[in-house]
Amino acid sequence: MNYMCFIITLENVFMVPTIIMYIYKVDKFNKSKACPDVQRDEWMATFVRDSYSSGEIGFRENGCHIEDFLEKQADMIRYLKEQNVRLVQKVLILNNMVKAQSENTMQC
């Protein structure tokens, strides 16, 4: 029983300083690098209130037509749905071909 206490104590003697050194190095590394873009934008927003005054996030050009954008987006969604249906049909056909071929090889 005493040898288990000795082993656990020995492990802790080596692990605790190693973990403390690791935490120190990671903290030093994180402080030396620039913040991620999201945090930097939030930090800048505290100084520049007029660009975020409307409560919207994102960029909008003057004269931008949202209706055109939404129409293009709807067209893209419609196209992708049609493409998805075609691909599903193709997968079903290929599955049937593989199934038929495997049945033919089993009969031989």
From TrEMBL:
Annotated TM spans: 6-24
Gene Ontology cellular-component terms listed: late endosome; lysosomal membrane
Topology within the bilayer: Multi-pass membrane protein
The entry's keywords: Membrane, Transmembrane, Transmembrane helix
Main localization of the protein described in the UniProt heading: membrane
Protein's cellular compartments: Membrane
InterPro entries noted in UniProt: TMEM192 (IPR029399)
Similarity field: Belongs to the TMEM192 family.
Name of the featured protein: Transmembrane protein 192
Organism for this UniProt entry: Pediculus humanus subsp. corporis
